[in-house]
Amino acid sequence: MSIDQSKDQSHQSEPANRPSLSVVVANYNHGHLLPVCLTAILEQSFKPKEILVMDDGSTDESRSIIEKFAKEHPVIRTHFNERNLGVIPTINHGLQLISSDYVYFAAADDKILPGLFQKSMDILARHPQAAFACAIGDWYEMATGLNWQVGVGMADRPSYLSPERLVELERHGKLFIATHTAVIRRAALEPWISEIKWHADWFGLYVAAFRHGICFVPEPLGVFNIHPHSFYKRGYRDKNAYRDVLRHMLDRLCQPRYADAAALIRESGALFLFGLPILRLMLATPPYRRFVTPLFLRKNLWHGLKLEVKRFTPRFAAEWYFRLAGYKMPAIKTNR
Strand 21-27 relative to strand 50-55: parallel, antiparallel, unpaired? Predict the structure, then answer.
């Protein structure tokens, strides 16, 4: 499929039978943040078939807040784990409890913006082969106040991006799937892999993307709040645990069942994102060396340098760099 053919045509008529959407909200001790998260979901113009709130054994006020919202909004269903099972098992269990064609996984500490569901479901209905639809992600680092956008420049209008186009975008440093904006076709999704932990969503969505292609909406439609002690941040602090996660990821990519996606991930150099730890692991483990290509090395070493410099860069300089490097959109207002 050519690039022109892959792009969504705005003059196409609206589908008569639009697929259904379920939302799974995973929560653990984020009761004070749940009202913002749930209100943003309830106020979407495209109404989901169900909103399943999965509480993972919270010890704060989460249960009373969830029950209050469920009482006021019949679309909300609840499930309370008797004990804390962890993020991935909770999400996977939620996936088993829903019945819609598409699913959106919401984190209790993030916020979606108006139009995410409507614009995602519109383009997905026109491109049913796509694994999911995603948008530009607005990232906010709570500890530093730094703010940047990911996915800028992937397309200039709502588009279907084939696997081949995704490789091309990644090779030119333009591919970044904001997983917190992904509305996913259930038939294209495998359960998150527990051993890959905080990178399970990256692995699952990139495998699906390189198999089926994706739809992309070039607007910031979701806010990802990076908390200092979040699941996302904690994963990087334990070097041994982080190495084990990367090893599990590479082991999966070496399995025959993932050969199709792994070939395109290798060709695109997409694994650069995991920095020097994954490079060291690849060099030390013969089966993983297939992913060490000149493109991967260039992207990986440059990314590692940027991460190191960011540690010592004043906020104003970092903001300037984000704008210069294309990680900023003009006049972003997200009402965090």
Answer: parallel
Q: Is the Cα dihedral 180, 132, 267, 250 positive or negative?
A: positive
Q: What is the pTM of this model?
A: 0.86
pLDDT at res. 143: 76
Alpha helices in 172-310 (DSSP H): 200-212, 231-234, 239-253, 259-268, 275-284, 294-310
* Main-chain phi, psi angles of 317, to 5 degrees: -70, -40
Distance CA 197, CA 103 (A): 20
**pLDDT of 227 higher than 80:** no
Backbone phi, then psi, for 168, in 5-degree steps?
Answer: -60, -45
Tell me how crowded residue 60 is: count the other CB atoms within 10 A of its CB: 14
Look up the CATH architecture of domain 3-233: Alpha-Beta Complex (3.90)
181 closest CA partner among 244, 124, 230: 124
* Per-residue pLDDT tens over the stretch 259-275: 999 999 999 999 999 99
DSSP assignment letter at 229 = T
Q: Return the domain boundaries, the chain.
A: 3-233, 239-324
Residue 10 pLDDT class (50, 70, 90 cuts): very low
For tokens 């207002």, what's the residue?
333
* One-letter-per-residue 3-state SS of 142-209: CCCCCEEEECCCCCCCCEEECHHHHHHHHHCCCCCCCHHHCEEEHHHCCCCCHHHHHHHHHHHHHHHH
Share of the chain residues as helix, strand and coil, in percent rounded to the nearest 5? 50, 20, 35
